[in-house]
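Researcher: Let's do a round of design. I'm pasting the structure tokens now; please hold your answer until I've finished.
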């Protein structure tokens, strides 16, 4: 994502569903999206963001450390030359699995019986991350979809 093998002004659309979450340098990745989009091209990036500053004294999972701060999305993209920036937070809940379980209890119970239950816990039950169980992850993170357009004059 930080060095795609495409020429400038190559794509009409760039889509990513989850890949941007783990990119260490978001600015470089978004610069590359801007570079490969044709003038007027659009992007839609679905990723997880952080809604607050992570306490540096805690051993956060590496994935969370590289999540982009939600508050910076629009200004970062604007600085890179994107227009019509929209951050859709309408499906941002991090407890979606709990919602699915409550709405589809019979199917979820059947699935859970088949699967290794350790895979259904936060980071497979690693005790270093037990502190996450005490947090409301909806207050810490948000799943978002970012829409933007490259200027037609670029």
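Researcher: That's everything. Go ahead.
Model: Designed sequence:
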């Amino acid at each position: 994502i930080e060095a795609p093998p495409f020429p400038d002004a190559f794509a009409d659309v760039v889509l990513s569903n989850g890949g941007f979450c783990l990119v260490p340098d978001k600015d470089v990745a978004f610069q590359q999206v801007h570079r490969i989009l044709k003038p007027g091209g659009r992007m839609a990036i679905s990723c997880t963001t952080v809604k607050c500053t992570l306490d540096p004294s805690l051993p956060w999972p590496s994935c969370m450390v590289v999540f982009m701060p939600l508050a910076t999305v629009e200004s970062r993209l604007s600085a890179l030359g994107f227009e019509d920036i929209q951050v859709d937070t309408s499906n941002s809940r991090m407890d979606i699995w709990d919602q699915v379980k409550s709405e589809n209890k019979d199917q979820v119970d059947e699935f859970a019986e088949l699967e290794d239950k350790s895979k259904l816990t936060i980071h497979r039950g690693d005790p270093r991350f037990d502190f996450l169980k005490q947090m409301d992850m909806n207050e810490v993170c948000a799943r978002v979809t970012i829409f933007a357009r490259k200027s037609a004059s670029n």
